[in-house]
Amino acid sequence: MMGVFSDFLLAKTIRRIDSSDSSLNPIYLTFDDGPTDHSTSMILDLLDEEKVKASFFCIANKALKTPSLFNEIVSAGHSIGNHSLDHTFHNFFLGKRKMFNWINESEQVFSKILNESTVGFR
Fold it and tell me: Can you tell me the mean pLDDT for 71-96?
């Protein structure tokens, strides 16, 4: 069981981003905890104006509550990361099985909405 759990977390958790092209100096922009009514639209407008892509590490319950805003992020070509089901961080301290289920449940929500997996969990 521990091996499966560890493999799941390592496969789904963002730890390091490598660029295979050393001539590039990429900057990875990420936004967490959304989508939120008061800032996501402004961020999307600015990214569009500057022609920049970013990763949005979203909370599954917020994505379900604001589907049009979430779809705006996806439609603009930004990547989606899993930032938990509800951002209740105490789940990290309830044991491995509970944490696994919490992360897995949020990933299932995103997979259903996106028809694909997220770029990872953090």
Answer: 90
